Amino acid sequence: MTTFRKALFIAAALTLGIAGSAALAADAAAPAESAYRDGARDFDFNIGTWRTHIKALRDPLGSAAWGEMTGTVTVRKIWGGKASMEEIEAGDKDNHFEGLTLFLYNPQSHQWSQTWVDSSNGAINKSAIGAFKDGRGELISQDTLHGRTVLIRDVWSDIQPNSHHFEESFSDDNGKTWQPDFIASLTRISP
What we know:
By secondary structure, the protein is mainly beta. Helices cover 14% and strands 53% of the residues. It has 2 domains: 3-30; 42-190, Calycin beta-barrel core domain (Lipocalin, Beta Barrel), CATH 2.40.128.
């Protein structure tokens, strides 16, 4: 083997060795797929028809006055169970609202998105993203309230076969403190 070929062979071997070592290091640093829990069925508890009692802060960041209403929430699976759609109607003729929530599971990120649409204006809100851990679901989004950027946190807790609790809170200090502004207690009417 000529000196040139030897040098070329050594350079190629070193390059492959370095590339192989880098690939092994990258594989070692990458989180294992099994480290993430498959949460595709986390919202299955929510499927069915529910009676809801709602307390809502009338003007977050502006007033401490709360309003109350009751209503019905109907949730069904769509797209072969890859998503679910929630319809809510609550209140009375003087204080009434209807809305739709789309829940989608991303199997690559192992996270849920929740997107709310209010029938009063037809606007699609920014999606909240998150996951369930230890029987508690927490999804976070960012929004604007009275011209201020705030974080919105949606939490599902106290999940039982025939009841659960939902609470939306906002934070105008980047998550240091949270102010509840929408609290719902749900009781199953039918599966």
